C-alpha cells in the first residue's frame, strides 16, 4: 500500500468478494477540479443489494457472538490501518471530492479517531441489574446488536461519515451494507480494502455503489435490515423514514442544517472573524454544520464586515491537490447552479456584494468566497441551506431578536455565537434550539461529543458515549423460580 490508486476499487464488495454490477453497468467518478473522469464504479441495483443484505445477515450469526474484546481489537487495527495510510486515503478523497488536501487529511484523521473511540466503547456496552419488586425474581437488562444495518452516506465527508456508522455498528456487533454517494464512492470502497487488510470477516462490511433509488429502496424495505442510518438532505431523509416505516426499522438521521452564527457587540472581533471563516468556508461551505446565516449586532456590524471580508479574501482558491489551496471546487455543476440561484435571488432583493460574488477562472466548479451585506429574511438563504461559499450577513439590534431569528427555521443542527458576557453565554445557549452549540468556537466536531440535530435536522446521535445506543436493542430479562 502507499499510493492513492492502491485504494481505488472499481468493483463493489459483497460477501467478501469484489464484483461488478450484474448487468456490467458502470458510473463515472469525476474529479470536481477538472471535470475529468478518474475511473468508474459499478452501477448496481436491487439484486446486488439483496445479496449484500443476505451476506450481512449470514455474517451477523457469527459476528454478533464475537466478544467485545475481539471486536475492539478489529476496530483498533482498523483505526491504525487508516492512520498508516492517511496520505494515500486523503489524496483519493481529494481527487473525487475536491476539498483541499489538508482538509482531506484532517477528515481521514477524524475517521481513525471515530473508529478508535468506538473500539474503546465496544468494551463499555454495560447492562443493568434492577432492584426487583419480587423477592424470588431477579431483573436483568442486557444489550444486543440490532442486526444488519443499512448505511447511506453523502459526498461531503465521504470517509468520516462512514466511520461514524461503521464504528458503532461493529462495536455493537452489527453487520453493515453501506451505500455511498455516487459522486464519491472511492473513499467508501477504500473501507472495504482496509477491512480486508485487518481481517474483518467477509460479509461484515458490504459496500454497494449505484442507483440510490434502487439500493435505498431495497435497504429500507428488506426485513433482514433492522436499522437505517443516513446522513444527507432532509428531503431524502424524510423519504427514507417513510420507506423504513413499512418494516418498522430503527433509524438514525443526520439531515440538513441552517446554522446561525451570532456576533454580539461584546464579542472578541478577531476570534469571531477566524471562527466565521472556518465555520463558513471549510469544504467550500459544503457541510451541514457550515454557517448559513451570520447575524451581527448593530454596534459591531461595520467593523465585523470589514475584518471578515479581509480575512475571506486571504483564502486561496485552487484544486485540492494544489499546494496552499484553502478553497476547493464545489462538488458538481448542479451545486454551482444552486449557488448562483441563491446569489441572483439575494441580489434581486437588495443584498450587496462585499467581496467575491462570481465563478472563478480556475474552472467551471470554482466559486469565489463571497460575503454579502444587507441580507434580509425574505432571501432564500434565510430558510434554505446554501451548501456553498456564500456568507450572508444580517444586522440585528437585541439579544431577543437574535435568538428569535436564529431559531426561526425548521432545522436545528449547529449554531454558533460570540460574546464575552458569561450570563449571555448561558442565556443564549439555553434558548438556542440546536443539537450543537459553539460559544466563541467555530469548529466543534469531535468523536467524544454527541453529534445530532433537533427538529427536522435529525434523529439520534453519532459519536460520544451515546453513539452506540442506536445500534443496540435493550432486553429486559426476568428470572423467576429461583427458590429464594
Ligand atoms: P445531497 O443533496 O447532499 O447530494 P442527498 O440526500 O441527495 O444529499 O444524498 C445523500 C445520500 O443519499 C447519497 O448517498 C445519495 O445517493 C442518497 N440518496 C439520494 N436519493 C436517494 C433515495 N431516493 N433513496 C436512497 N438514497 C438516496
Please sum up the structure shown.
With 484 residues, the chain is α/β, with parallel strands linked by helices.
Structure characterization notes:
- With 484 residues, the protein is α/β, with parallel strands linked by helices.
- It is 37% helix and 20% strand.
- The chain has 13 helices and 20 strands.
- It has helices at residues 46-63, 68-84, 86-97, 101-122, 160-172, 185-197, 212-221, 234-245, 269-281, 301-313, 333-348, 399-407, 422-431, and strands at residues 12-14, 17-19, 26-30, 37-42, 128-130, 138-145, 148-152, 175-179, 205-207, 225-231, 250-254, 259-263, 291-297, 352-355, 370-373, 390-396, 414-418, 436-439, 458-459, 472-479.
- The chain has a seven-stranded mixed β-sheet, sandwiched between helices. The chain has a six-stranded mixed β-sheet with strand order 9-8-7-10-11-19, with helices on both faces.
- α4 (101-122) runs parallel beside α5 and α7 (212-221) runs parallel beside α8 (234-245).
- The longest helix is centred in the first third of the chain and has 22 residues, at 101-122.
- The chain is globular and about 75 Å long.
- The structure holds adenosine-5'-diphosphate.
- Adenosine-5'-diphosphate is lined by residues 152-155, 179-182, 212-213, 216, 232-233, 236, 239-240.
Amino acid at each position: 500500500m502507499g499510493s492513492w490508486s492502491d485504494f481505488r476499487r472499481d468493483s463493489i464488495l459483497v460477501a467478501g468478494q469484489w464484483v461488478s454490477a450484474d448487468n456490467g453497468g458502470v458510473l463515472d467518478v469525476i474529479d470536481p477540479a477538472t471535470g475529468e473522469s478518474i475511473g468508474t464504479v459499478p452501477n448496481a441495483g436491487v439484486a446486488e443489494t439483496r445479496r449484500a443484505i443476505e451476506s450481512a445477515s449470514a455474517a451477523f450469526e457469527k459476528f454478533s457472538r464475537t466478544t467485545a474484546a475481539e471486536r475492539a481489537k478489529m476496530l483498533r487495527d482498523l483505526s491504525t490501518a487508516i492512520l498508516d495510510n492517511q496520505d494515500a486515503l486523503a489524496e483519493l478523497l481529494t481527487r473525487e471530492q475536491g476539498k483541499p488536501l489538508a482538509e482531506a487529511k484532517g477528515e481521514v484523521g477524524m475517521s481513525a479517531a471515530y473508529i478508535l473511540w468506538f473500539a474503546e466503547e465496544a468494551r463499555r456496552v454495560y447492562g443493568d441489574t434492577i432492584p426487583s419488586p419480587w423477592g424470588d425474581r431477579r431483573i436483568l437488562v442486557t444489550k444486543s446488536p440490532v442486526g444488519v444495518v443499512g448505511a447511506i452516506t453523502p459526498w461531503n465527508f465521504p470517509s468520516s461519515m462512514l466511520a461514524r456508522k461503521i464504528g458503532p455498528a461493529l462495536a455493537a456487533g452489527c453487520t453493515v451494507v453501506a451505500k455511498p454517494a455516487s459522486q464519491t464512492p472511492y473513499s467508501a470502497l477504500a473501507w472495504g480494502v482496509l477491512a480486508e487488510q485487518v481481517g474483518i470477516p467477509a460479509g461484515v462490511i458490504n459496500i454497494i455503489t449505484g442507483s440510490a433509488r434502487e439500493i435505498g429502496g431495497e435497504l429500507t424495505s428488506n426485513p433482514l435490515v433492522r436499522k437505517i442510518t443516513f446522513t444527507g438532505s432532509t428531503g431524502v431523509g424524510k423519504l427514507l423514514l417513510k420507506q423504513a416505516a413499512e418494516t418498522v426499522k430503527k433509524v438514525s438521521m443526520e439531515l440538513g442544517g441552517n446554522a446561525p452564527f451570532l456576533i454580539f457587540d461584546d464579542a472578541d472581533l478577531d476570534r469571531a472573524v477566524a471562527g466565521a471563516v472556518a465555520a463558513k468556508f471549510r469544504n467550500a461551505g459544503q457541510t451541514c454544520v457550515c454557517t448559513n446565516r451570520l447575524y451581527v449586532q448593530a454596534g459591531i456590524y461595520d467593523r465585523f464586515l470589514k475584518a471578515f471580508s479581509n480575512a475571506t479574501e486571504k483564502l486561496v482558491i485552487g484544486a485540492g491537490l494544489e499546494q496552499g489551496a484553502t478553497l476547493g471546487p464545489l462538488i458538481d455543476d448542479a451545486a454551482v447552479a444552486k449557488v448562483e440561484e441563491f446569489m441572483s435571488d439575494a441580489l434581486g432583493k437588495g443584498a450587496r456584494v462585499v467581496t467575491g460574488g462570481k465563478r472563478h477562472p480556475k474552472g467551471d466548479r470554482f466559486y469565489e468566497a463571497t460575503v454579502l451585506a444587507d441580507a434580509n429574511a425574505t432571501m432564500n438563504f434565510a430558510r434554505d441551506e446554501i451548501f456553498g461559499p456564500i456568507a450572508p450577513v444580517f444586522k440585528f439590534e437585541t439579544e431577543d431578536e437574535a435568538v428569535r431569528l436564529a431559531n426561526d427555521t425548521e432545522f436545528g443542527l449547529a449554531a454558533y455565537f460570540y460574546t464575552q458576557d458569561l450570563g449571555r453565554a448561558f442565556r443564549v445557549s439555553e434558548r438556542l434550539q440546536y443539537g450543537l452549540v459553539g460559544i466563541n468556537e467555530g469548529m466543534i466536531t469531535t468523536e467524544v461529543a454527541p453529534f445530532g440535530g433537533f427538529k427536522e435536522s435529525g434523529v439520534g446521535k453519532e459519536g460520544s458515549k451515546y453513539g452506540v445506543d442506536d445500534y443496540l436493542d435493550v432486553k429486559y430479562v426476568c428470572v423467576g423460580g429461583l427458590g429464594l
